[in-house]
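2024-03-11 09:14:02 INFO worker-7 job=invfold-0412 stage=load source=structure_tokens
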């Protein structure tokens, strides 16, 4: 009896391996989860940059659609990706 609670050895035998397995799984997924979070952050920033470009470029007639491909392109490549999208939009209306 620990603190007025009886420990059931059968449950303890289930909880300890489950907790260790969860820790090992989290450790194994740490890098891929970090990579996915960085990609999501970059995509969000890329979407914001395209949105600002659309606002600023409305007077110039430059419009780049916001979709998953363009957002990821600008998020991953940064300014060169944005320049690529604008160049494609200007040269291929």
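2024-03-11 09:14:09 INFO worker-7 stage=emit residues=93
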């Amino acid at each position: 009896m620990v603190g007025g609670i009886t420990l059931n050895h059968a449950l303890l035998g289930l909880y300890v391996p489950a907790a260790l397995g969860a820790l090992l799984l989290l450790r194994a997924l740490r890098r891929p989860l970090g990579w996915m979070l960085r990609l999501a952050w970059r995509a969000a920033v890329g979407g914001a940059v395209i949105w600002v470009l659309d606002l600023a470029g409305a007077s110039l007639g430059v419009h780049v659609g916001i979709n998953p491909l363009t957002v990821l392109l600008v998020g991953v490549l940064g300014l060169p990706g944005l320049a690529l999208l604008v160049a494609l939009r200007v040269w291929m209306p």
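2024-03-11 09:14:09 INFO worker-7 stage=report msg="The chain has a mean pLDDT of 85."
2024-03-11 09:14:10 INFO worker-7 job finished
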